[in-house]
Write a structure and sequence with these properties.
Blueprint: H1 2-22, H2 31-41, H3 48-59, H4 64-85, E1 95-96, E2 99-100, H5 102-106, H6 108-127, H7 134-148, H8 154-164, H9 171-196, H10 201-228, H11 231-234, H12 240-243, H13 249-253, H14 255-272, H15 281-292
Helix pairs in contact: 1-3, 1-4, 2-6, 3-4, 3-9, 4-6, 4-9, 7-9, 8-9, 9-10, 10-14, 10-15, 14-15
Length: about 300
């Protein structure tokens, strides 16, 4: 894990610098809106999704500089989704990454606008990335739009999650929720890295299988952390899934079996990228990191 820690630190450094260049400063008007955006973006996230873009891209031969704008864009979409997810009309949370949520710090209306701006800035960053061909930019924009919206993206996943609260949910329905709510953006991140690397068809298929498993693994781990960690460790309010009667893997299987399932999916994720060759250490370590994380 030492290798991965060093890798994640290097990713965070370059992605944060890219984000800083793409997001208005707090001196730009309206200051409270731009302060809210920066409050959320630079709240200390691990930058897992940018790490997936860069990890996949570099394994397949892309230069890191070519991957940065897209990595930052995907982080902006992720942050926008967190801001909106925390709103009183959604999960109604007071904490995110150990800090007050955007709407608690700046008000609900400003938080909504901060999420809106981040989503539009993300697509602007990709559209204006002259390091990529026009065809590549269009393809990534299309994939990111699909992963963000409906019928197969985050917005659908969030609605399905809301619809399932307090109801009996089959394992097929639960997996559908998680693949949309969490997995879609992770798959878009991996696909973008492969596209920037101009990967071959067989490599793209391997990356797609890996990303699908990784997205599911991330949400299963999230479900486990919600009931096994304290608020201080999580950086957000613990126990909210159970209190809201949300559909989760531990609620369906219990904690022990859910942990077994996570370990199995981690193995399947690593097996999926075996066709890429021997230079997959970072991608394998990312799967380990997701299943072993504590927040």
């Amino acid at each position: 894990m030492a290798l991965l820690a060093e890798y994640l630190d290097s990713v965070k450094t370059v992605v944060d610098a890219t984000l800083d260049s793409l997001i208005p400063t707090e001196a730009d008007e309206p200051r409270n809106l731009h302060s809210a955006i920066r409050w959320s973006v630079f709240a200390g996230g691990k930058r897992v999704r940018p790490a997936i873009v860069i990890g996949v891209g570099e394994v397949l031969g892309a230069a890191r500089a070519d991957l940065l704008a897209t990595s930052a864009a995907i982080e902006m979409v992720h942050t926008y989704s967190l801001i909106h997810d925390d709103l009183p009309s959604m999960d109604n949370d007071d904490l995110r990454r150990g800090k007050a949520t955007c709407h608690r710090q700046f008000g609900e209306a400003t938080a909504i606008l901060a999420g809106d701006v981040l989503q539009t800035l993300a697509f602007k960053a990709i559209a204006e990335d002259v390091r990529l061909t026009a065809e590549c930019r269009i393809w990534i924009i299309s994939q990111l739009a699909t992963a963000s919206g409906t019928p197969a993206g985050m917005a659908s996943g969030q609605q399905l999650d809301l619809n399932a609260e307090g109801k009996g949910t089959s394992i097929e329905e639960l997996e559908r929720i998680h693949r949309h709510k969490t997995g879609a953006l992770i798959s878009a991140a991996a696909s973008a890295g492969a596209a920037i690397a101009a990967a071959s068809g067989s490599d793209v298929e391997a990356v797609d299988r890996y990303a699908a498993k990784l997205g599911l693994l991330f949400q299963i781990t999230d479900d486990l952390l919600d009931i096994t960690q304290e608020t201080k460790e999580l950086g957000k309010t613990a126990g909210k899934d159970a209190n809201a009667l949300k559909a989760t893997y531990p609620a369906h299987f219990g904690v022990a079996k859910t942990r077994e399932l996570a370990a199995m999916i981690r193995d399947e994720a690593i097996a999926a990228i075996s066709p890429l060759g021997t230079n997959t250490d970072i991608l394998e370590a990312l799967a380990d990191f997701i299943v072993e994380r504590t927040n």
